[in-house]
Amino acid sequence: MxxxxxxxxxxxxxxxxxxxxIKEKIEEILKKNDSKIVKEENWGIRxxxxxxxxxxxxxxxxxYIEGNNKxxxxxxxxxxxxxxxxxxxxxxxxxxxxxxxxxTVTS
Length: 107
Fold this sequence. Notes:
Blueprint: E1 2-10, H1 16-32, E2 36-52, E3 55-67, H2 69-81, E4 85-93
């Protein structure tokens, strides 16, 4: 199994219900592909460096995944066509970091 860091940015006005539906869909895709979320971080609403799809702010979420490259392709395919997600990035990493990133929002 490989490890991946996956960050996605949603529109800032997305409510809790919308965030949960995206998370449930991501978990469903992972489960279908024998993968799982190892660690999650909520980075909150932050300003974007430049306008993306007419948004100047976005709600950042970061997840660490244990799985294969097929699951990343499926995940990005879903995110590419979901209008609530304005940007995403996946990176293959060697191991899951144990400490928090420092960007995590506590509420």
